Amino acid sequence: MYLGLTGNIAGGKTTVAKMFERLGCYTVDTDILSRRVMAPGGLAYPMVVDAFGVDVVDNEGNIDRTALRKIVFNDDAARKRLEGIVHPAILKTEAKLVGEIKGKDDRAIILTQAALCVETGAYTRFDGLIVVYCEPEEQLRRLMNRDNITREEAEKIIRTQMPIDEKLKYADFVVNNSGTQEETEKDVKRVFDLIILMKQAMRQKS
Predict the structure, then answer these.
(1) Where is the binding site for ATP, in residues?
(2) Which of 50, 99, 125, 167 has the most CB atoms around its CB within 10 Å?
C-alpha cells in the first residue's frame, strides 16, 4: 500500500512520519531525495547549474541551496523552472526506491513525505493521502523558533504555501499535530488502524 504524507512548513510532517515508522511503515522523504538528486552526480545537478549558473555552486562544487532559495523565493518563474527540473528527478528516484521496498516486502505500507504533492497534482499516484494539520498560530510559533526568524518573516513564508484548510480537502486521513507529542502519537495510531482497515478492504477487492 502506497500513501502520501503531506502538510505545510513547520507542521510536523517529519515527526509524524517517524511515528508511523515506529508502527512498522516504510517512509520515503522527498526532501532527502531532493538533496540527493541535486548533489554532484545527481539527476538534477547539471540541469540546475545550467539553468541558474555557477553562482549557485559553492567552492566545493555543491549546489548552494541558500543562494538558490534566495533566487526563487520572490521569482515565480524561477521557482517553476526549478520545480520543473527537480520534481521529475525526485519522482524517478522515488519510484525506484518504492519498487525496491515492494520487491522485498509485498505487504509493505509505504509513506512518501512530500510537501508539494497536492500543489503539483502528484498526490493522485497514491492509494490515499495523509495530511498533517497544525493550528496556524502553533505552526507560526514553531517556524519562528525553528528558524530563528521574526513573525513577519514566518508569515511571509507561510503565505507562499497552499492554505492548510485547502489542502485538507484532498485528505483521506488527517493527523492533528497541534498538541503534545503524546496526543499526536495517539492520533497517528488512530490513523494507522484506519489504514490497516483500508488495506484489508483493498485486498478483498483485488
Answers:
(1) 10-15
(2) 167
Per-residue model confidence as pLDDT tens digits over 15-34: 999 999 999 999 999 999 99
Question: What is the distance between the alpha carbons of residues 31 and 24, in angstroms, rounded to a whole number?
Answer: 21
The answer to whether residues 147 and 173 belong to one domain is yes
Which residues, other chains included, contact 24 with Cβ-Cβ below 8 Å and sequence gap of 6+?
109
pTM for the whole structure: 0.89
181: its cell numbers: 507529542
For the annotated binding site, the residues are 10-15
Do residues 125 and 142 both lie within one domain?
Answer: yes
Q: pLDDT value at position 202? A: 86
- Asked which of 56, 80, 108 is the last residue of a domain, the reply is 108
